[in-house]
Amino acid sequence: MTKLELIENLTIRFDHWKNKDVKEAVYTTFEEICHTLESGNRVEIRGFGSFSLHHRDARIGRNPKTGEKVQVEAKAIPYFRAGKEMRERINDSYGNTAIKK
């Protein structure tokens, strides 16, 4: 699902809200999550999951094309971990639908 599809689905579900207001709410929510992570904090949405940062140290990498050694800077990687309720809900629905290979 894309951000646009999310906005459209919410607009249909909550037909008493204006599309503009739904769009603003979705964008504001995502912006707040990003700002919180940028400041080094964690975001936890009970029943849904949590967003945090995983830190990677600087290292010497290798350019796969040339084989040349390259310095890779330290960085923070955004990480999402699904909450217990979400995992259980997905696993319950997954178990009810047989997937054939």
UniProtKB/TrEMBL annotation:
SUPFAM superfamilies referenced in this protein's UniProt entry, alphabetically: IHF-like DNA-binding proteins
Cross-referenced SMART domains: BHL (SM00411)
GO biological process: DNA recombination; regulation of DNA-templated transcription; regulation of translation
Family of this protein: Belongs to the bacterial histone-like protein family.
Matching PANTHER family: DNA-BINDING PROTEIN HU (PTHR33175), INTEGRATION HOST FACTOR SUBUNIT BETA (PTHR33175:SF5)
Task performed by this protein: This protein is one of the two subunits of integration host factor, a specific DNA-binding protein that functions in genetic recombination as well as in transcriptional and translational control.
Protein name: Integration host factor subunit beta
Organism listed in the record: Ostreibacterium oceani
